[in-house]
Design goal:
- The protein is an alpha/beta fold.
- It has 9 helices and 13 strands.
- The protein folds into 3 domains: 115 residues, Nucleotidyltransferase, domain 5 (2-Layer Sandwich), CATH 3.30.420; 145 residues, Nucleotidyltransferase, domain 5; 30 residues, no CATH class.
- A hairpin with a 4-residue loop joins strand 12 and strand 13.
- It is globular, with a radius of gyration of 21 Å.
Length: 331
């Protein structure tokens, strides 16, 4: 498991864990009672959210010396938030929109526009005085997402970490069709065949993908600075530069841009248990050693034919069941 650990603050006996599980990556973040980040880690989900979370807990257990009692609350977010909430007995599950907004407001007070691009989707969050006023999410078009950029970097034979450096060395504006991944790739191939440099093509791609993001998510939206850029694609300085060029404003990239969703989930969990004077439901680090089985079926009780998802241990113990509209199967 690839990890990035942050230990800038003293670990105390009151820690709050956030888990962000998406289609591409799984992030863990731990904050202390002062909301300071004490630990963060990420790894590729690789199509197995349960296994990636179990590996995350294995690493966290080692980092904390097995002291699971230090964890006073757990929050989950991301596309697999309900699955993981059931798996680890988390205290709450929140959407990525709320989690990203909470973390962005903490590190950048007064933020008004959050640009978030992850591995498979993109989000726009508008805020005023720390409150979400509007948001848009695009999970249909992959153009500009991390997986698409990874693919293009591989095709060009360039490490994705160097994409931004290539874009910064561009001397000629090259127009790339960015409204569709298929068109973008074919247009890049055409520009290569015409003899344009990789630097110019990559810079053109960055600008095309930013225009695509703004056209798809931002039409009719009142976007105002300060702008904050989050998600894995924020590591690409070429995309950041293109946002700044087109928006005409500075775009802030937080030091913890990659794990902001998990950080927000941890902060939300802390607030939830403290305001309600609750004891955490967290089942402990042994979750990393358990064997889980997931299965699904269609309920035939009514015309809705709901798709029910079940999670159970290999012992047969039912962990959770959800997906129905009437509550018949939910546990």
């Amino acid at each position: 498991m690839d990890t990035e650990k942050i230990n800038k603050h003293v670990i105390t006996e009151n820690l709050y864990l956030g888990i962000d599980v998406g289609s591409v990556s799984t992030k863990f973040a731990v904050v202390n009672q002062d909301m300071k980040l004490v630990y963060a880690t990420w790894a590729r989900t690789q199509g197995s959210p349960i296994q990636s979370v179990q590996k995350g807990f294995f690493n966290l257990r080692q980092a904390l010396g097995g002291k699971e009692s230090f964890i006073k609350a757990v929050g989950t977010t991301g596309s697999a938030r309900y699955l993981i909430k059931s798996l680890v007995k988390a205290d709450l599950a929140k959407t990525e929109i709320i989690s990203h907004a909470i973390a962005a407001s903490y590190y950048n007070p007064g933020v008004r526009t959050i640009l978030e691009i992850g591995g498979q989707d993109s989000k726009l969050i508008l805020m005023r005085d720390g409150i979400i006023t509007d948001f848009t999410m695009n999970s249909i078009c992959a153009a500009g997402t991390g997986s698409f950029l990874d693919h293009q970097a591989h095709r060009l034979g360039i490490p994705i970490e160097e994409f931004g450096d290539y874009a910064s060395r561009s001397n000629v504006d090259v127009a790339i069709a960015g409204r569709c991944t298929v068109f973008a790739e074919s247009d890049m191939v055409h520009k290569q065949q015409m003899g344009h440099s990789k630097e110019d093509i990559i810079n053109g791609l960055c600008e095309a993908l930013v225009r695509n993001y703004l056209n798809n998510l931002c039409k009719g939206k009142s976007m105002e600075p300060p702008f904050v850029f989050q998600g894995g694609v924020a590591a690409n300085s070429g995309i950041k530069k293109s946002f700044e060029k087109i928006l005409g404003h500075r775009v802030i990239v937080s030091e913890y841009f990659l794990t902001m969703g998990a950080i927000g989930a941890a902060m939300l969990a802390k607030t939830y248990v403290m305001e309600n004077n609750l004891k955490t439901l967290f089942c402990g680090f042994d979750v990393s050693d358990a064997n889980f089985i997931t299965r699904g079926f269609n309920c035939s009780g009514c015309p809705n034919k709901c798709e029910i998802t079940c999670v159970q241990k290999d012992t047969g113990e039912l962990i959770a069941r959800w997906g129905d509209r009437c509550g018949k199967w939910t546990t």
